[in-house]
Amino acid sequence: MSTESIVILGGSFAGLGAAHYAFKHVIPQLPKKDGVTYNVVMVNPSKDLYWRFAAPRACASKELMPTNKIFYPIEPAFKYAGTNFRFVQGTATHVDSAGQTVSVTTAGGEQQSILYAALVVATGFTTPSPLFTQTTDAAALESVYDVFQQSLKNAKTVVIGGGGPVGVETAGEIAELLNGKPGGWFASAPKTPKVKVTLVCGDKKLLPILREAISETAQQFLNKLGCDVVFNTKVVSATKAGEQEGAKTKVELSNGKTIEADIYIDATGMRPNTGFLPKEWLDNRNRLSCNPQTLRVEHSSATRIYAVGDVSSYARGGVMDMYEAVPVAMTNLKNDLISHISGKAHSGDRHYTANLKEQQVVPIGTQKGVGAFGGYRLPSMMVNFIKGKDYMIKQLAEGTMKGDAYTKDPKWTPVQQVGKAGLSSG
Ligand SMILES: Cc1cc2nc3c(=O)[nH]c(=O)nc-3n(C[C@H](O)[C@H](O)[C@H](O)COP(=O)(O)OP(=O)(O)OC[C@H]3O[C@@H](n4cnc5c(N)ncnc54)[C@H](O)[C@@H]3O)c2cc1C
């Protein structure tokens, strides 16, 4: 009896999607061979999915976003797969593509080597601030939030660096929590806010992927919550004067100004979790480089390796893209495996097409927000209804855990392969 494994690194939005897709549409179609079973092995540092969307509110207040709403256990979501699903709580440290093994350090400190027939890399990204990333387990992130919420109680000056959605949402949540909700629709910015909240934006407008008029509305909403926005300015350095309670952070800006902040939050972008992969597989932004249509890693040393989610070179960021990308990567994985196991000719590739429409939904505090969907501007009330109430936990969390987006597989047309760098047999 032998087992062929589809190994998935990462157990967040992309990894969960890939695993559900594997059970629903890949494993049932793999060639039946005497004495061979197929399984999915998922490696993830935490036993829980972290509902990252809600981080801007969860970091600010446990009352507004309780921790039991932001963590969802992974293993029970695959009960239906029985022993064909194996969860390893740990971190991948090395991929040996010649031996088709992944080295893993488990949460308990043990070293494991896991053999794969196909490998899905879904290790996402880390944020510079610990407020938006679950690095180990739920308890560790909860204690980061405890310390942060304690420090918010006495803060008089808060600086947030980064004018993207994470910076804007976090500024909105913190400004509303500390300065209160604005009086009414036509309320103006508070003349003397209790806490000075400043959002530092490197660009000439907030929210780079949205049109200017929407960015302006975001700025107005922030101003009404007592948050100033500084444009065309970057945070050059942020130096904390020690680790003691109440220690200030000196925030130096590219416009020559310096702010002595009680709290500084770095919301400037993402760092792909690719340190464990061979350097030659990465692109110039340190993402896992893959064919933008097949999502297969095409480096000559990579055999049956696929990139899904924000770790990969194809991704624009965000979860919506994955609903298209996961089926593509996993279908190509399936066809590559079938051809490899059966020795039959490859049945062709499935191709991914990026959705480049203006699309982003950004709550600003618990009452307002801005955004666009499918190229159409959304009114503030709609943003609040879709996302501002609970960061989409009610609509999406359960379905994400169950893999609802992958229950059905839409029709697609195979494209015959031209180059097959990723298909060498191994
Ligand atoms: C504050 C915030 C708010 C957001 N809000 C939205 C939103 O409203 N809508 C939206 O569409 N997107 C939003 N995003 C973006 C969204 O969170 C990402 O697109 C999504 O998390 C990417 O999913 P992923 O599975 O690719 O990677 P990640 O969510 O980054 O998950 C990667 C997983 O891999 C694990 N991992 C890392 N290294 C290893 C390793 N070596 N071995 C094994 N496992 C590893 C990580 O621990 C993690 O569990 C937000 C992001 C942030 C930071």
TrEMBL record:
Domain FAD/NAD(P)-binding: 5-326
Origin superkingdom: Eukaryota
Gene Ontology cellular-component annotations: cytoplasm
Keywords: FAD, Flavoprotein, Oxidoreductase
Coiled-coil ranges from the UniProt annotation: none
InterPro entries assigned to the protein according to its UniProt record, in alphabetical order: FAD/NAD-bd_sf, FAD/NAD-binding_dom
SUPFAM superfamilies xrefs: FAD/NAD(P)-binding domain (SSF51905)
GO MF annotation terms: electron-transferring-flavoprotein dehydrogenase activity; flavin adenine dinucleotide binding
Matches recorded under Pfam families: Pyr_redox_2
Family: Belongs to the FAD-dependent oxidoreductase family.
Protein name, UniProt field: FAD/NAD(P)-binding domain-containing protein
Species: Neocucurbitaria cava
